[in-house]
Design a protein that fits this description.
Elements (H helix, E strand, L loop, with lengths): L1 H7 L4 E2 L6 H9 L3 E7 L4 H13 L7 E7 L4 H6 L7 E6 L2 E7 L4 H11 L2
Parallel strand pairs: 1-3, 2-3
Antiparallel strand pairs: 2-4, 4-5
Helix pairs in contact: 3-5
């Protein structure tokens, strides 16, 4: 029954490649509550974080939007935010950065942080 309930909920999870990254990201920032996860394919902690981020999709509130930025595909955003550590998680409220966290976070930690930063 666990999977059946979660399959009905459509995740709001954005990834882009081959588009005008910056313009598309500006549109995503229009969402009130946004979590952006910066990842790298060569990064072992990112593999854990990706699993946790994907789990969070199913437990997050519906008004929270997610965007995963892969370092090999979205260099414009990596450079814009001066990302040097992977994984990095950025929380945006009304298009403003409210928190930056470097390192792995569990799905429960993402949920707790979203409740704190998106009140």
């Amino acid at each position: 029954m666990f999977f059946a309930q979660h399959e009905l909920k459509k995740p709001k999870y954005f990834t882009y490649s081959g588009f005008d990254e910056y313009r598309d990201f500006q549109e995503i920032l229009d969402n009130e509550n946004l979590i952006v996860y910066f990842s790298a394919s060569w990064c072992p902690p990112c593999k854990i974080m990706t699993k946790n981020f994907n789990e969070f999709v199913y437990i997050k509130d519906d008004d929270i939007f997610l965007h995963k930025v892969e370092e090999t595909q979205e260099n414009t955003l990596i450079n814009k935010f001066k990302i040097k550590v992977y994984p990095t998680i950025m929380y945006f409220k009304n298009a403003k950065i409210v928190k930056i966290k470097e390192g792995v976070a569990s799905a429960k930690e993402l949920q707790a942080n979203s409740k704190t930063y998106f009140r």
